[in-house]
Amino acid sequence: MSNKRNGSEARKLTRALRLSRRAMLGAAAAMTGLAIARKGPFISNAEAATPNLRLLMWQPYAIKETIASFEEKYKATFSPTFFDGNSEAFNKMKVGGTKDFDIVQGDGFWPRLYFRQGLTQALDYGKIGNMSGVFPDFLPPNFPLLADPDHAVAEKYGAWQKKSLYGRTYMGVARMTYLIGPDGKVARRWDGVKVDGHAAVVLAAVAEL
Questions:
Q1: Is 106 left (phi over 0), alpha (psi -120 to 50) or beta?
Q2: CA distance 108 to 154
Q3: How confident is the model at residue 74 (pLDDT cuts 50, 70, 90)?
Q4: In b/e form, how buried is each residue of 104-127, taking b as 16+ CB within 10 angstroms?
Q5: Per-domain residue ranges for the chain?
Q6: Considering the domain 47-156 in this protein, what is its CATH number?
Q7: How do residues 79-105 score in pLDDT, each as one tens digit?
Q8: Phi, psi of 189 (to 5 degrees)
Q9: Is the dihedral of CA 161, 163, 146, 150 positive or negative?
């Protein structure tokens, strides 16, 4: 009697498993059909109506309180992508970033390089309402920037190095800091610099000179 009962229960369990598997396959097929039938983009109208500002930037500048205030005031979303150095940002833009970013941060000669490469557009300062709050010394042409377009200076400092990104090898500027003493000689050197907290470390070293 026990063997018959066990055999009957096993057959019921097998049928249940078959039905469950059939139901799962049917649901998966239905979902697949829905995905194929629905044309992109796969976002709702409410999401599509929300402006999205896409930035390529250094992480320490992404201040949570400022971002929250911006999103609340302008009813927009803030979507940052972070990088460690200008050369990394440059290569991200070269890979296809002109379609992925609205604003990119840069310093030194890099903004000019972006423009020459066709990665950025000319800026009309007249369309920026709060430019009156910027010190004149920081506006062009009053703000001269040192440029090293042929990376001759970077090579002398050992900063022109082989790098890699997404499996692609290229030459670029390594993130390094040199502290030059009053005698004009190198007092300290930092390699593999990360932005967060580095300024305080350099200031402490300056105080020790």
A1: beta
A2: 12
A3: confident
A4: bbbeebbbebbeeeebbeeeeeee
A5: 1-39, 47-156
A6: 3.40.190.10
A7: 999 988 888 888 888 886 567 888 888
A8: -140, 135
A9: positive
